[in-house]
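Practice problem: predict the structure.
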Amino acid sequence: MCCGVFMTIQGHWRQVASAAVNILLLSAYAAQSHVHWQHSLRSMLSECRWEVLELPPRHFSWRVRGNPLYWALQERDVLVRQYDLVLATSMVDLATLRGLVPSLAAVPTVVYFHENQFAYPQQNQQHNLLEAQMVSIYSALAADSLMFNSAYNCESFLSGCEQLLRRLPDKVPPGVVDLLRGKAVVVPVPVATVVSAEGVGRWPEADSLTSGRALRLLWTGRFEYDKGGEGLLAILQQLESDGFDYTLAVVGQQFRNSPAVFEQIREDYSHRLIQFGYIEALDDYRALLRGADIALSTALHEFQGLALLEAVAAQCIPAVPDRLAYREIYPQQFRYRSSADGDPQAEARSGAELVQRLALQLQQGRVTPPDISAFDPQQLAARYRNLFATLVGASG
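Answer:
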């Protein structure tokens, strides 16, 4: 964007903001990462007036299809108010909602994609994603702008749309994906620096790694198939086989139907574990991040990876597979060989080797966390503000 255009947009936003921009935020499946994004936006753009409608993150298939029915009838008085901008998550059936509440069709609208329904690993898939995929296509067509949290998310969505449209039997108009691509922009979810916390410390040794204590290894993610519990187990087995000394924190939300591999890890590695499961208190969680040395990911899908970015913001060294959004975020030195569709044992060996290599580099003072300043809220606030101002200005 040229400087002249930038100044024009900034000036227009100041004019608009002085009149208090009214933004309607719709979150149809308010998972933790969605809530974090929502709170970050409201904090960064505090000059705006925010109205938020959200639905709890359960009953996935019904949420995707049912949100316009519920909101259009139950929250109609909120939806018909005067807004300058509508900001909807990709779970929102925007096309149907605009049809049921016609006044919304006149308001500039952004759809924000935390994830897309085309790039999930297919094994053990609990839901038939075809309906969700079609809803996301219609919502994207109905929106004025599409925002993605990573280039990987954007490209896998567009590629998935193209593949699906090719499978349809007939009457598929040309140029759909090109139209969507023309609306798309990548703007990540903000990640603030994790400051020192007064929370409860869980790591057993206070000394630095240079004094010879065991490495502190952190794994953080939901206890679900797509976060790669099998890969985590394989890497731990390889570390044990190598005789490597470490303590381990496995942290994340647990669910009634969490894969059995997580319980196996809890039982088999009780001698390593200093934490297993969710940590309720935020300060305690931050204290755990600040005390860890290496944050390991084994994810089979990751569109941005907020939990890992938060760990890196707390000065952890990342060790991630060479796939997904990780390729655009972390330099090669922090990525191990990916074999998600090939040889899992080869991936485990590569992951274990990277952990041990980074541990040695940490001990020798030869490695520091990668630069993630691109995710800083202050930097991203200007990008969000400029994009919103463009849409509001175009409708004014």
